[in-house]
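Crash report, auto-generated. Payload:
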Amino acid sequence: MIASIQAVAPHDVALSIRDLTVNLPDGMERTHAVENISFDLKRGQILCIIGESGSGKSVTANAIMGLLPKVIRVSSGAIQLDGMNIIGLSPDKLRSLRGRVVSMIFQDPLSALNPLMTVGAQIDEVIAAHGVGTPKSRRGRAVELLTEVGLPDPEIMYHQYPFRLSGGQRQRVMIAMALALEPTILIADEPTTALDVTTQAQILELIRDIQRRKGMSVMFITHDFGVVAEIADSVVVMEKGHIVEQGSAQQVLNSPGHPYTRRLIAAVPRLTGEDRVPLETANKAPILKVEGLVKTYRSGSSLFGSQRVVPAVNEVSFDLAPGRTLGVVGESGSGKSSLGRLLIKLLDSDGGGILFEGRDIAKLSEAEFRPLRPRVQMIFQDPFASLNPRSTIGHILTVGPVAHGTPYAQARDEAKALLAHVGLDAGAFGRFPHEFSGGQRQRIGIARALMFKPKLLIADEAVSALDVSIQAQILQLLDQIQRETGVSMIFITHDLRVASQICDEIAVMQKGRIVERGPPSQIFLDPQSAYTRELVAAIPGEQPGSTRPVAANG
Amino acid sequence: MRGFLLNRLSQSLILLLIVSVIGFLVLNLLPGGPLAQFGLDPGMTQDDLERLKEQLGLNRPLLIQYLDWAWRLLQGDWGHSFRDGAPVLAVIGRHVLATLLLMGTSTAIAIAIGTWIGIRGATHRYSLFDHVATVGAMVALSIPTFWFGLVGIYIFSLQLGWLPAGNMYTIGDGSVLNYLHHLILPSIVLSLVHVAIWSRYMRTAMLDAISQDFVNTARAKGLSERRVIMKHVVGNALLPMITLAGVQLPSILTGALVTETVFTWPGMGRLFLDSLGYSDYPVVMGLLMFSAILVILGNLIADIAVAIVDPRIRLG
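Recovered output after restart:
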């Protein structure tokens, strides 16, 4: 397939990469970030580059922008931008291309804008940097751009600081900034990965819409085949610095040729719409019963007026049977993480009850709750931040049980057995967290929680930070553990597709309330509330009711 | 913002109250009490001391003494020096300008050079410059200031004869040049350690800021590297530095004990040492309150400055 690409870039190609090899510094796990890759971005098309972390997709984008760190060098190949090879151009020439001929938007809109500058000043800056316009014309252009990306009250927005804007709004500002000088090429590096599913759908639509209107060429980097199905004209699949497959979106999605592509597509969590076969348990009494739980955040000072009150969890009630999994799904700010923290008493509730095995733990003091802690355990979101980098895995696993009175020798033996159980070798016991990959660390996090033989596991976005193929493995592991130990689980996630894979029942949260609760078949095939319908409709690459992983979307 | 200010101000007042109580108690409970110095005078009889106590109101209960002292303090009467009977505020006034001249100059040098070294060290990380700056800062921090002072005097005053060895001016010559000539050595010696501290903090703050995502955005916009650094990185790196400056601010007026002594500089640091030696309690107590007020003011100013610079705090 690669051989079929012409050596000379025809004029309908906006960006052409030929035999590009980028070296990594010595001592890394591979010698090349990308090796001998070639692809074309045709004018007026959206090209998706898909791959897992470490596949070299971001390095490719940075090479095109001329923004590679000094230690990473292009060793051979050509990058033809509008017919001009940019390899070896002077830094000043490259600088004048950035923002004018090729623009880029980034993954995390929350950190991609300078917090000390107004939105307007940041848009103005890109125009001024290329010596275009007068202060007055630039201001007019900035307001025009803010209108174009669909931000409300552009005149007011011009003077806003980024912290006042939501993630979706900030990503729109980023897009406005990237469009300021009408570049030929827009590079979008996972621009929707950090966003909620409904916001993601809006941003994808905006990019698609602008691309069509302006006839721009977009290089869209993602790890999500759902997004690919949504917007791509053509697809490049990368694995460990190599292109393993490329072609039209239809071709790659419907008849993937390479096993890696097939594996990636298969790993995309899909809306099953089928309910899980529930675990048979002898005891049917609910292990957890939550009644009218309330948590209200107060900020500012009550002494001088100016207090803000945000109801994070508002009259939430549900119950959970032993050996079952309840999914809690919602967008950021819906209160789902607060709910998880309330259940494990990392937060104190303001009202309502949490009956754990029939006993109300909501009102227990920290000291009274401590003996119960081992029975309710949590798996955290970020496998990189949730393990102490200075502790060995052995210490991380045993310190809790030892603190609760287990003899060390016994805890050690259990820890080694558990490590094997979650798919790591026993040698992991003496090693440190940084020696493991994200997926392995999450296995360690699961083993840590299991050390206490808990009755209830609370997983807060436990697979959100992982690549899709790793996600699938961790979900499988959690399912297996539940079937073996009969542990009950509360699975908090923003990803409906993930929830549909592992949950017996799903509760959809919005603004602190549960708006709908039911088995996956109901939530996905026959949603009762308008909000749930909206959420399901926003899932990229899915049509409600379809059983195919990725809907063809030519 | 108003609520924030009121809040901080009320906290500050409580803090001042606590400092004054502790300071007052410690000084009065020291062996010998406030009159220890007079007790050393062989000409003083027990009766004389009693009379003095009566005169100064020192025979009253401690609480009454404290309230009396605090009430006068609020009215601007900070008491009188035991040494020469001059009002404490006037004594402080005599020394504070000398200190301001020395500390102001050295702080300005320290901030200017320290910021530059910090920026350059972060943008040229692990370069020769960065290594030299790191080692230099370690040396400046690990050798006591008085040693630099003495070495400076030995080389530049005694051997080369370029600079005066001490004092603020030559008696009989009050020209600006004469003052500046005397200022060079102590201000440079004093700024050494501050340059070291400031440059290390600045370098760290720069490295923090330089790895932020918005710096990538700025580069992707096609801004010149100079603008990326000066506008986006330095702007954000200076935020934590404002707080550090607030902590340093009081020392501009309270002086440097050791350096002022080495260079016989007639500033607040020397006043404090001398007053302690003479057990001049009203002056010591006055200096204590003076620096407490300055520390609180410095932090308050830093908080306000951060709020002005950072919209998240100003408007959030």
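Post-recovery validation: Chain A touches chain B at residues 65, 67, 91, 95-100, 103-104, 106, 108, 111-116, 125-126, 129-130, 161, 163-164, 174, 177, 300-301, 303-306 (CB under 8 Å).
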